[in-house]
């Protein structure tokens, strides 16, 4: 924070500067002015939190200076230091949001109390401004989400929108009503990316996807990326050009797919319908794009084979027996062999994988959904729009593992308890949600939910609390350097450890150690 001291007497300026312990208030810079004109120039240049102001100055006196502050709308806190106990001067200070009027000769205590009130008042104004900005941002975000939800429900066929309402919605979200292209997209390796690269943060993943789309498309076409659910995305694009639209849109799509792949490692499958003349033709266009997507080949690059696609019924009895016996390794082997048989065929379309998905979901319903308790426990059915065999295999294994586990409540509790015990034994190591999920054979989402149900906290909060508890003990009972202490708790970055510790305790590690030593 900054301060301007305006007084035509140099010894007064120096006296104020030397009298106050500025650092205790977080003030790092002070600027001097011997008249009102200089003071106003410094205010415009440095935006100080506080202005110390004399009333009697050459060229521009205190009253004129404070009037200028008010006219220009500055929220700088004013402390008048003057030898004139005159009402007109006091009134000028109050009109300029002055917080104090101190008569010369002043006392150090009076100055510091005035600075404290000024800083407190400035922080309150700043916090209020931030709250108002955040409130406006939340309202805009809520409005945007509501518009997206309207469009999602319309595209899903859950609501009917009149033609004029639909055109108004397009206008509101920034889309024109002509030269539209509809691309139906499926992220292929989304789950692996979220669990690995994005450490389970779906919001961060979606932000990255949107940000790249914005960077690639903003200078070429107007676009809107809409998510029907976690797998089905619809990209609407519109161009002002009319010549060779098909090649133009295909070029944009390839460029976007390349950017997602190179930047995030994200692979997508997409079907496109080009040249939609009007938003009222949106639903038929989406249906056409979806139909073209169903014909997509999922095993590109594989060698074509004469092998017929394997029958699901041949594996179903084996799966049911393994589930009933709680044989997780057997389940993994059976499903893995089935997926290998699919790969051996060399060709598999999305519509064919969807048939297998429906058959697998029937099995989940028959076994896992036989009671309401199990329905609540199992992570739902497989999405028909999974288009990556590795993800399909992982999701099916997870459902079968859950069905095997829920046949024995004790085994489930023991599994989550094992995660809890593992964290307590290995807190000093690099632990992540994905490594725990892999080690204990849970999906990250399932592990997160069940851990919170049993221990009423998240895994990462539990790990952080444990590390902070150990950190407090080490800071009190040892003289180890902070960097060494952080490393022993699983933090490679000393600065990050210090930020986490301060967030938990309100003090930095150094301050905490000093505070306890002093006590």
From TrEMBL:
SUPFAM superfamilies: CheY-like, Homeodomain-like. The keyword Transcription applies. CDD domains: REC_YesN-like. Residues 417-515 form the HTH araC/xylS-type domain. PROSITE patterns: HTH_ARAC_FAMILY_1, HTH_ARAC_FAMILY_2, RESPONSE_REGULATORY. Pfam families: HTH_18 (PF12833), Response_reg (PF00072). This is Response regulator. It comes from Paenibacillus baimaensis.
